[in-house]
Amino acid sequence: MAFDSLDAFFAMGGHGAYVWSAWAVTALAMVGSVAHARIERRGLLRDLERRARREAATPRKNPDAS
Amino acid sequence: MWAFIHKVGSPKWFYTISARLLPWCWTLAVTLILVGSIWGLAFAPADYQQGDSFRIIYVHVPAAFLAQSIFVSMAVAALIFMVWKIKVADMAAAVMAPLGAVMTFVALFTGSVWGMPTWGTWWIWDARLTSMLILLFLYLGVIALRGAFTSRDSGARAASVLAMVGVINIPVIKYSVDWWYTLHQPASFSITSRPSMPVEMWWPLLLMVLGFYAFFIAMTLMRTRSEVLRREAGKHWVRELAAGGA
Amino acid sequence: MPSSDKGASSAVEMVEPRGGLGVAMAAIFKRDLILAARRRSDILNPLAFFALVITLFPLGISPQQALLATIAPGLLWVAALLATLLSLDALFRADFDDGSLEQLLLAPQPLSALVLGKVAVHWLMTGLPLALMAPLLGLLLALPGESYLVLSLSLALGSVSLSLIGAIGAALTVGLSRGGVLLSLLVLPLNIPVLIFGTGAVQAAIIGNPVGPHLAILGALCCGALMLAPFAIAASLRISING
Fold this sequence. Notes:
Helices cover 85% and strands 0% of the residues of chain A.
């Protein structure tokens, strides 16, 4: 352990603002990319599902209409 | 051999096999990055010259590595797409470009933040930062060119040509910027090219670099899978998949 | 020109007459030259732009001779770079609009060689006049006396690369209706090495260093571009036409 206390760890020897902002932006970029990819994938799957349901529903609808 | 390449190139085969690889990649990425972060932030000794501000290295250097590697991977994927007409290669190239741009931005941001305690200014026209900035413009060009075409196939091929032209130019740009920098700012202190770094500082960096690479592979696999679904939405196997999931 | 022999041997299956490639390249070169001579404004506009941009800098920065002299090499080179960029959009545009680009694609000769003729005309009509005009503008910026020849020489040599690399961007964006801004985004980062060594040569001449190495590297960049760019231009044109 390079630090004596938790406070020293957060202070980073006076450079806390720089170190933590650099790490925060990196973490944000990576978590953001993953979140974006997950939302994209979920949206695509939902669209496909809806499309499949619609296609499955069409033949049943026709006899109802007639 | 050719049969194998075309099998890998088929979107369906890629979709099934990547589903099996993906959990491993994520586990590897998360483990390496977590261990590397904790080690680098809390356990690695402080630098004798820069103190604790050097801990930015553990995100700056892996991001800079990725920024360059992703461009090369993108160009290789573009080449595979142009030569063998393998669609999955282009899907991978398409999803790599934004990730590469994000990583280039991260490298630029962390480098600039690191500059403040080291040089006393947010931005310095350091050779490394300058080439990173140019790389960001190259990424933006590739992304913009792909988006500018109304036909997806034309956009894909245009972006492939540009990626290949760019990758040939990257070493030339890098060397000319290095030369330019040494001409204008002789013998100044460079933040990352250090003659000797203690082993205790090296290990976490190695873990972080490997972790970032695993992250890149996992992200690319994941988003390429989405791209497969998007482009193959009308195909039989995707419909079956959607119907099965419903 | 050894290209006439090469053209005949590399395209045997086409049964073209001996020297077909040389004839075709010369024909394209002549045609573009005539077209350029008829549209004189296309040649004059980049030159006027070059002069105008150079006029803006003393107004925007300061008319002090000492200050202008130190930044003159960079200003002249950047302005010349932008002027070349301005002329690039028209490189394939007219041929694309009237369909003669498609005829070029259908020609039995390799497209990469044919576009070289077009790029050569572009350089003759923009790069060379810019290089010849630069010393005049250098005078306005109080460029030190020893560097005028080197300025012209570096611009003449460097603009060959600028034309070749720019033609790739022009070919990629010719099919797009609003390709202008995109073209600069694509081309400018790729031109940075030429800019660095071009200004490097002029600055070396000012401080009395040998300029040979800089010009040699500019020549090397030019050779590299001459070797690889034609294939990229040809591939890009095919994409733009078929898309």
